[in-house]
Design goal:
With 233 residues, the protein is mainly β. 0% of the residues lie in helices and 30% in strands.
């Protein structure tokens, strides 16, 4: 089994391939063989990750493409379910449903791969249908310990809470993640609410004319050392 993440800050942490007959992982009140399948990914780094156009695939092909606006805060998890409408707080983790309406995880073995928009493999996990990390035993397989260990059946982990734990650590506690807003080094530095109406003194946008509205402005400064993508701000 390949369990080592290629990019250290994005980790496939839990996979649920065999939810039927008792694994109502998405919390909709019905255990379903495909809709309750899920893949849990965690941002283990110290920076926000923009997942737009990242993808999850199995041995057949692409099953999910993260839509515009999908960001993962430092320490936060995101859970992608096979279908239906997930219900619950999932420990504050982000939750989505596969854009293909199917994850298609084979119980007896498959490969789950996370790729960036350029197609680079960030993490890839191959499991089989036998052994301590078998995918066909009515429970998820999860890293032990969370985030860094090898995969093993959920119930075999010491202190495990139940047979699966989407959005939570294996013991049922929430991931300790930072609020995305507090991690940005962005400062509102200057505000111009009342441009001068005398000559061009108030021509803040330098278009050679004064305007009460057009010349208003807000100045924001990145006080940190890292590039910040403002596309979703």
């Amino acid at each position: 089994m390949n369990t080592a993440p290629v990019r250290a800050d994005l980790v496939i942490n839990e996979i649920f391939a065999d939810p039927y007959p008792s694994g109502d992982a998405n919390g909709d009140g019905i255990a379903d063989a495909t809709e309750d399948e899920f893949v849990e990914i965690v941002n283990t780094g110290n920076a926000i990750v923009n997942l737009y156009e990242y993808s999850i695939e199995d041995g057949v092909g692409t099953r999910h493409v993260f839509p515009l606006g999908t960001t993962l805060c430092p320490g936060q998890a995101i859970v992608v379910f096979g279908g239906e409408t997930p219900s619950g707080d999932f420990g504050g983790s982000a939750v989505q449903v596969a854009t293909s309406n199917l994850l298609g995880l084979n119980n007896d073995g498959d490969t789950v791969t996370l790729r960036d928009p350029e197609g680079n493999v960030l993490d890839s996990v191959t499991y089989t249908g036998s052994g301590d990390a078998a995918g066909d035993d009515d429970q998820s397989i999860t890293r032990d310990p969370d985030l860094s260990g090898n995969f093993i059946k959920h119930s075999l982990v010491s202190g495990a809470a139940g047979a699966f734990s989407p959005g939570f650590r294996v013991d049922g506690t929430a991931f300790d993640f930072q609020d995305c807003v507090s991690t940005y080094d962005l400062v509102i530095n200057e505000i111009h609410a009342d441009p001068s109406n005398s000559g061009l003194d108030g021509d803040a946008n330098a278009d050679c004319s004064y305007d009460t509205y057009d010349d208003e402005f807000v100045e924001i400064v990145n006080s940190g050392s890292s590039t910040i993508d403002l596309a979703q701000f």
